[in-house]
Specification:
146 residues; alpha/beta; Ribosomal Protein L15, Chain: K, domain 2; three-stranded parallel β-sheet; 4 helices; elongated
């Protein structure tokens, strides 16, 4: 039977520390100095004051990721769905229609089927996508970046 005086609390009481008493002087916080302070934690890379390994090792080498060319990918299926026949498709129009997110380079891939004659301006294109566009009587123009 439930009575107000027999109810059990739903959560534990937190341990109140740092007030002296039966827990002792440090009250469960360890010794003195940095570890006794709230938020006083050393980073994983801390090596007791000596020069850390990450700073001792030389920083040299080359990373090609800085020069990676990234493309926004557009499929033939989406060109089929969003554009009418005989339209000139360029990066600005693709951005307006929401097919690409930014002003990056564009690559057309041959996912899906194309049944319309389109004039496509893009930075890169798969060979099968080029063939599919030309098979419908469309034109392919590759944009050269200078």
């Amino acid at each position: 039977m439930f009575d107000l005086h027999t109810l059990v609390p739903l959560k534990k009481k937190r341990k109140v520390i740092g007030r002296g008493g039966s827990r002792g002087g440090t009250s469960g916080r360890g010794g003195k100095g940095q570890t006794a302070r709230s938020g006083g934690r050393k980073s994983v890379l801390f090596e007791g004051g000596q020069m850390p390994l990450t700073r001792r090792l030389p920083k040299r080498g080359f990373n090609n990721a800085n020069f990676k060319i990234s493309y926004d990918l557009v499929s033939l299926e989406s060109l089929e769905k969003h554009f009418d026949s005989d339209m000139i498709i360029n990066p600005e129009l693709l951005f307006e229609r929401g097919l690409i997110k930014g002003k990056q380079r564009i690559k057309i891939l041959s996912n899906g089927e194309l049944t319309k004659k389109l004039i496509v301006h893009a930075h890169a294109m798969s060979e099968s996508a080029q063939n599919a566009i030309k098979a419908q009587g469309g034109e392919v123009h590759l944009i050269k970046e200078s």
